[in-house]
């Protein structure tokens, strides 16, 4: 009986010598990971079975012959449930705790009792903070009972402090693993969300750019082709009666075509770096409306332009919008009104707004029923593009017949952003 006491006391401090097994349950990150081709990838079940296998080997430690069958059974009950610890952490913790309770009742100290700490770590790593604290309290109570039963000579404090330290370490490692996993999942979700938002913004920017280029091409091509068609008709009509006028019309057609090419290169210059025409020719603005009126007069549409207020301080983009609005309105007048029609353009510039009025004296043909209301006579995108340009500055475009005859287009652009509040 006296010889067995030192051996039992030595076995009572087995948890202190088994700290390396707790460390084996914690995944250690290598400083320099191996290349993907050289990493050893094991099936999850096989990887989870490595630690229980090590615990099963501890049953081979020397012990009394009568204790060996009981030790084998208890070691198996403590170690084997750990194979499924990641799939059912709470159930495995309950099974291991129950086996440890039976071990305490039978009075058989085993190194495999470390399975309780591994189960505690798994619960803390896969459960909430409350579950981790409850599991830690259960294991701490078991550690106190184990020290009371298996320590001799009043040596209770040192084993209890060692076991308490391991309980705290296992709980802290598990909580840290869970926190790290949650943070990584949140970062991955945020990265995926940011990537999705970036792609969405890119798609919206591409769609907006396509819309802008479509409007520019529509205004440039429609206007210049309409002028060239009108000039060509005039040249054909005057080629026999007035060769000089026919020659002047043909020269005007050539100039209009060159101007159309220049405008197209300038509008598409943003798509190609180093486009010379985009830098050499400034964007058209309010100052170029007189030249536009002269071009339309040569095409057979007498046009008068009146500009009230100073426009030199207006942004270039706002002036381009005004120019395109007037150009599209006059192009529609040239296309849809008979000979003898006159047009008038009135631009009023103030500190924060620009008012655009384009009127003509010619009647419009009946609008087809298939054309949406408010889009002007005949199919096309002219009025729709004008509405989009005006809406970019908070304006609302009005287009329709005038009470005294003719057609009018009116809008007001808000340069200071006040149009949003006004339109709301």
Automatic annotation (TrEMBL):
Q: Where are the transmembrane segments?
A: 42-60, 66-84, 91-124, 130-148, 155-175
Record's keyword terms, sorted: ATP-binding, Coiled coil, Kinase, Membrane, Nucleotide-binding, Phosphoprotein, Transferase, Transmembrane, Transmembrane helix, Two-component regulatory system
Pfam families membership: DUF7134 (PF23539), HATPase_c (PF02518), HisKA_3 (PF07730)
Q: Does the keyword Transmembrane apply?
A: yes
Q: Where is the composition biased (Pro residues)?
A: 363-376
Q: What is catalyzed by this enzyme?
A: ATP + protein L-histidine = ADP + protein N-phospho-L-histidine
Give the signal peptide range. none
Read off the InterPro entries from this record.
DUF7134, HATPase_C_sf, HATPase_dom, Sensor_HK_TwoCompSys, Sig_transdc_His_kin_sub3_dim/P
User: Which protein are we looking at?
Assistant: histidine kinase
Give the source lineage, highest ranks first. Bacteria, Bacillati, Actinomycetota, Actinomycetes, Kitasatosporales
